[in-house]
Amino acid sequence: MFGSMRLIIILGAALTGSACILQTASPAAQIVVVTTTQEAGAPGSSTQTPDAQALPSLTLELTQILTATLTPTNTIAQVTMTAGQALSCVKGPDWKLYEWVAGIAEGETVTLVARAVPEIPDYFVARTGGGQECWVFGGSSTISGPTSSLPVRETPPLPQVTFVIDNKVQIPLCVVYIRGKDETVWGANRLSAPILVSASFGITLTAGYYDVQIMDCAPTVLYEGHDRAIGPDPTYSYQLIAIDVDFYIQNNLPYSICRIQTRTAALPAWQDLYNHDSGGSFAVGTRKNFTLRAGFYDVRITRCTDAVLPLTILYVRPGVGGFTWA
């Protein structure tokens, strides 16, 4: 019978004999394995038992060496994008709805580090030359490399935006409707009080796409927009109501007119709309074209005999066409 064997390691083939060196794929890493085969009771022999704590340690060391030597390293190909036009790099996958971070010039190449969720296939996270990471639209640009290898980046929350309505018509605004672009009912008026002439009004909304309708106190629709972006950039967070209306006046009075003047509550001084010294004769049966900012006007007419007629009120609004004085 044989005595106890200190340690036997089998790697591909059995190792026997009095001593051998097992060398891994790495020349620098070696493990010396010693085996002893002696008959029990032979002169000079002694029975030794393996160190139970040394065996797991040696096994772990061998595993680490083999793993480090044999495990391949995966290399992910770099993905780049060359801008086909000047681009805004923003904080989320929509350049109208998220805050601006950096600009990418036409022809500039940036590295893509992530892609948006499948529902937004043309947006990527780019690393700019300045080291900033931001979202960019890739639909108009040239992309080199497999975008499918990029990790998916979740969509950040949409920011809160103050949507400002600036009233520059000559009548207060009394109705503001705002609804989601997919909704079919306008809902409640967003105003608790009219937006006076030359005043503004702000309302906080989550950035997104909305339908907006704004009316004066007549009421006449002065603005209506569908599926419009409301975002942090002033281009999308500001709505100016400043409508100039083209209209005509037909003179069916029994005399020629030499002067027409207008005024409003916000502009109480009389302003010439028409003067025969510069506009020629406004004779009976003729028509003249004019342009005024939408709103209510007091009108004062002067005959060519210098007689001033009683005041007239005009409501100049989109679609009015014109007025006939008879």
Under CATH at level 1, the class of the largest domain stands as Mainly Beta
Helix content: under 10%
Helix/strand structural class: mainly beta
Across the major sheet, the strand order is 8-7-6-3-9
How many separate structural domains? 4
Unreliable spans are 1-48, 68-74
Distance N terminus to C terminus?
A: 136 Å
Q: Give the name of the CATH architecture of the largest domain.
A: Sandwich
Bin the strand percentage: 35-45%
Largest sheet: 5 strands, antiparallel
Radius of gyration: 42 Å
What sequence of helices (H) and strands (E) makes up the elements? EEHEEEEEEEEEEEEHEEEEHEEEE
Give me the number of helical elements.
Answer: 3
DSSP strand tally: 22
Shape: elongated
